[in-house]
Structure formats: C-alpha cells, structure tokens
Here is the input.
Amino acid sequence: MKRVGLILTLGLLVFGSLAFAQTPVPETPGANVGGDLVIGVSQTFKDMDPRIMNSAYDAYVMNVVYDGLIILHPETLAPAPWIAKSWDILSDSQVRFYLNEGIKFHNGEDLTAEDVAFTFNWIADEANNSPNLTELIWVEEVIIVDDYTVDVITKPEYAPFAPGFGSETQSIVPMDYVLEVGDAAFNLEPVGSGPFKFVEWLPGEHIKVERNEDYWLVYPNLDSITYRPIPELSVMMLELESGGVDIVDNMPAADVPRFMEMDDVVVQQVGSLSYFHMYFNLQSPISSDIRFRKACYMSVEMEDAVFSIFQNLTGVKSYGCIPPALWANDQEYLRDNVYLEENDEEAQRLFAELRAEGILPEGYTVRIHTPLDPRRRQLATIMATSLIENGVDAEVIPLDWGPLLDLAYRSESDPVGDFEMMWMGWSGGPDPHDFAFYLFHSDNATVGSADNMSWTQIPEVDDLLDKAATTLDQAEREGYYVEAQRLIFSNYSAIPGYHYVETRGVRARVQGYTISPLGSMWMVTPYHNVWVN
Amino acid sequence: MIGYTLRRLLQVVFTLFALTVLVFVLLKLMPGDPAVVMAGIGAQLETIEGIREELGLNRPWPVQYWRFISGLFSGRLQAMTYHKPVYLVIAQRLPATIELGLFGLIIALAVSIPAGLLSAIYRNSLLDYTVTTVALMGISIPVFWFALMLMLVFGVILGILPVSGRGDSIALFGWQWLRVSFVTWDGFRHLIIPSVALASVQMAMNARLTRASMLEVLREEYVNTARAKGLKERIVLIKHAFRNALAPVVTNVGIQVGTLIAGAVLTETTTAWPGVGRLMVEALQRQDQAVVFGLAIFMAFFFQISYVIVDLMYAYIDPRITYD
Here is the structure.
C-alpha cells in the first residue's frame, strides 16, 4: 500500500484565496503545561530523514520534529500556512511562497529559503533515489528568490497545478547541518525546526523527543513524547487499558466496542484516504475475459463479506476507488448501478460458458494472492470458498510484501503476471487524482514498478483522467472523475473492497488531540497543542 | 583435552563457513527484491534501479557474497536499511537479548532443578504430581499466550507490573549500544514478565528431565552401595545421585542457552522486547539481506560455541568422560 500519498492537485482557487494570510497560532486556554506522552506504534522505526522516509510510522516522529512548508487543515484538508505564511500563483507554472522569518532549527541555525529549496530539489533529483521522488515528480525546480521567498517551477505537463507540500515527507531539513554530517548520520539523529527536539532512538525500544523551548509558533504544552513500537496489537491494547501508553495508532475491530464503553479511553475514528480492492490481472488469459470477472464478482455477496469482517467499525464497504471522504467519490451511483449482488446461478452459467469455450481450462485452480494482513486474507478466503461452491477450484496464496510486489510489478521474464486476482491497498492525498490516476491510468501499467497492477488500459479513461489532471475548476474535474470511475468499474477490473477507518485509542487524560484522515500524529501545529491533565 | 578443544574449534570454523554459503544462497533464492521493498509502492522504475545499483544487488552472486563475507569480518558491511554497519545493528540489540536470556535461564534453573529433584525423591507424592502436571502445562502452553496472560493479570488487572517493553536502562562505560536495564528499578520491573514467559518452557523441560534422570540414577547400584555404607540420605542424594543425574540436564541447558539467545523471537515480539530475535523478524520483513546474513551467522556461531562448552563441561561433571 502506498504510504504517504501524493498531494498534488490542490486547486488555484484554494491557494489563491489564502494569499497574504498569516500562520494561525493554536489556542489552548486552561491547558496544563508539562507531562510526558507515550504513544504506541504498530511497527518499528526506519528512517528519521523525511526526504527518504516512506513509512506511516516514521511519519509520527516527523510530525513533531519538523515543520512543513504548509499544513493541510485538519478538517477541510485545504492547504494552510505553516512555515510559509502565504503564497501567490505567479503563472501557470510558478508558485511563490513567502516564509515566516525567525524560524530556527534545533541547532540554532535560521530556516531560510535555502533550506526549502535544498529539501525539495534533493528529493526531486533522480540521482538521490528518494522513494518520495514520485510525490515531487511535477516539480521542475525550486528557486531561491531571497532569504524568505522561494519559487516553485512546475514541469510543463503538470502546468496548472499549485503544489501541495503538505506531506510529512516534504518536511524542511536544515541544509548546512545535513551537508555537514552526511545523509546517514542525519537519518539517525535528525534536526528539524519543529516543536520537539530529537533526544534518543533506542532501536526496537523507543524514540524520545523533548520540548523545543524556543519553538517559533507557540510554546508546546508537553514536556516530552515517547514513541514505543509494539508489534503485537493485542499487547498494545493491554498497554492502552493499563495506561502504559496514552495513544495507540491502531485498534482491531473486535476491541472497538469494549474500549468505547471504557471511561478512561476515548476511541477516535475518521474515514481515511485509503482504498482496498481485489483486482483482476487483465493480462491473464482467464481474467482478461469480462465474463470471468463478473462471474467471480457474482459468486460472493461482497457487502456482507466486508461487513462480517469490519462490522462497519474499522472499515466501510467501498464501491469505487475514491474514498467517501473526498469529492467526486460517486459511491451512491456505483453502488446502485455497478455493484453486482450475489447471483450463483448466473455465475455458474458464465463459468460453464467459459469452460465450453476453453477459456477456463477444466480442473484449473484460480489463484487469489493477498498480503499477510489478516483482513485481506479473510476476504480472499471468502472469495475462494465462494468460487469453489460455484464449481471453480480456487486457492488463497498469502505472500510477504517482497514476493507479492515482485508478482504484482511483473518482470521482463514474466511481463504478464502469473496470477488471476490479488488483494491490494492504496492510500493517497486529499485529491481523487491520487486514486483514479495511479490505479487505473495506462501510464502506470509499467513492468517493474506498476501502480496500475490490474493493467487496466481504457483509452477513454486515460483521456478523462488526463483532462481532470490538467483542469483547475473543481466542478469540471469532478465530472471527469465521475465518468472515469463509471467506466473503470463497469469494466470490472477490480472488485472494490473497503475503505479503512482510521481508529485510535486515546487515554482520557490526553487533551487537544485529534485523529487525522491523513494518518498523521499531530501534536503541535498551527491547529494543535496537545496537553495532558 | 587441548587437542580436542582445538579440533572442535576448527570444526566450528568449517561449519560456519559452510553456513555462510548456505545462508547467502538461501537469501538470494528467497522471493522478493529488497530494492522494490525499499523503494515502496508507487516508486519510479529508475529509483528501484538506482537502489539496486547502490546496494550492489545487480552484481554477480560471488561478488555479492564476497562483499558480504569480507564486509562482515572487517566491520564494513553496511546494513541495507539501518544506515549503519551490520555489527553495530546487532550489537545494539544484543544486550537486551542477553539480559532477557540470562534472567530467563536463572529463573528456569532456580525453579526447575529443585522441583525436579524433589519430585524424584518424593516420587508418586502429591508434590510429584503437582510438579509433573505443571511442567506438562508449561511445555504445552504457547509462550505468546502465557505472556499475554501474565500481562493481563499482573499488568492490567492487578496493575503491579508494566505490560511490555524494556524499562529504563543505563549505558555501560559510556557505550550507547551497551545498555543494561535490570540495574534500574523500572528496568527490573519490565524484565519480570518477559523472562518468566521465556523461562516457562525451559522450566518445564528441565524439571521433567531432572526428575527422570534422577530416578534413573537412584536405581543404580552405587546408590544402594552408598546407602549400605550407612551414609546419610542427604549425602547420598546430593553427592552421589544428583551430580551424576546432572549430565543430561547440562546438555539440555547448553542447548537452551543457544535457544535463549537465538530463539527468543516469540517472546521478544510478544513483549515488545528490543532484542535480536525481533531484529531478525524485522530485518526479514524489510528484506535487509545484510542484517539477516550477519544475524544468521552470529546466531550459528553462538550455537556452535555453546555446544563446544557443553561438551567440555561433561568432562568436568562426569570424570569417566575424557577427551583425547
């Protein structure tokens, strides 16, 4: 699953209206100053350098050690000032950012335009092999205008976009310090300009940060924060219950009702910008036949399957790839007109037809691949069982991430991909482009690194998505996405599964913390200043 | 004796060499491409290629093997995802594992040997039944479940012990990687649940083994002779019987020491203990072949050495055994 999404297409209008705004300061009247917060994290940490970081869990630490050029408003997800106090769109391919003055990195150096340009140009430079290059693929260059002004020049094919820069992976790093200590050392002992300073990283044990007394925006309420990786979710729940941790970044559906009834724990939920589906391999001779895809679809009541696993608590049924939290999702239409209900008779009829034509060989076993994630495995099992009941042999093949991606990406030696179906997830930024374009545009069906893993190649869809990506008017773009999605899903390239509902457990003593659809772990920002009672 | 020791050590070297080849080939045959995992989903093709180039993954196998093996011994082998040399990645996790392993072993031995001894002496008594039943449960209950129960009871319901993780630790000699936690109160409290969980299986096995071995020895003629000589029962039991009953127990403990260090994967994962067992799981997930390689060789080395020590200890425990 793509971790940190692309935050590309935040329209001109939104950006324009915020010109000459100021960075808001969070207000927390009556807040208690002091205290240590412990956060339970589902995985161990990998990278502390935002330029190469590509894990949702590392991002939690980025959220407090660094500042972003801009922030996405916690509720509207519209870009809002942070390091940049305002910006202007100068032309179709140029945006000018005006930075706040007086921001200092933890080592005392000033944060200036030089650091902003360095950060983005480094990521955008192919020679650096940053996994986050894709997110800045639209940036031609970032130019320093003066100490506190930078211009972002976009590539011609991305001309009309105003950049987002709202992801943790685009946090600003101190140029001089990075060049002095080198990339590897910086990654282990990060220095940012954020509300908390990095203290220590004991691998597998914890990362500790302490208040940046000189934080430029506001005085952080918390003394310190400890991030503890706890690999077993059941153990993390015990930690939450006992008060050993204050916030957990994940909660299994089975535990949600129990914690909802508890007085000293608050369960926070928000629909996340994610999408999980079972896609068909459109290159395989079997699943390239739409009758096969429809027959599989009709072998199972997908609504019931998803409900049985999530009970509408940590996941909701999806009908298209654009999450309900975003505009242009068109979920209602897709549910009423494209979703296929279980119809075993029709499914069996189609399978018989395919057999008669020799497309589905007698005795053939259909393979459903899935990551090790228990929820997707369960859904894959439901699908396999339903197929077997309809007379088609099927097996579930759960795979580790590495081998699974090998299969999904195809290779020179196996460009077709030797499989019929695969469960996969995706998460993106707050724009429909991040979902529809990457998952279904034929540009992304490339051997070796495919986001469009189903190899969906529909010229009309490509056309619509291209238009949507180069148009600024949101209403017009919405029309393109709606049409594109209807085409994609009537082609049954994929059976939509679910949108994940971000669920976090928070001890009642924690105040001012809000869960984010972006999956961030914000502590002190223009909109937050968390404290403990 | 010295000749034997040297021969054994030479064997260790050969075994290890064969292992490095085996582990390397297995790593390379393992499906999945580290560069793809590192670049993440949605990465550009060029990025993946670049990472391959950077890590030398596109070189011929023998070249890669040489890089691994020479780098491992010179300390220059860099981890693929940890941004430091492999030996340092392992060294940082090792103290936690050794600490947990030693505590687990101490608890296991302190409980199991007396328990096994007593149940052999008071055979078919209530005590004997209790020990054998509890031991059977100890072997049968999965470690992770037992650890969860300990957490639930002592961490959540009674609230007297921390649920998981390693507590405060201090760095010895100012070396940040060499941290011990049992010397602090908080660290000691954190150590209890994981080490009891880890000890549970060993405890049960050792108790049963001690009992069985003791019963066998008690049937020996020299024990009867000792008794017939009019020696005190306690002397007979401890000096004549127990010492001779110890050999199989020592073998088992020796094997367990290796397991404690290398095989505490489950306990460490369940209790969020930052040791090498969990590192192995983590490195495999990240497809960090350098760390997996280094760890596998290190663990194998540890096993081998503990076997050699066990062999040598036989001679000490049982004077009839000599090596030449």
Summary: Chain B touches chain A through 57 residues (CB under 8 Å).
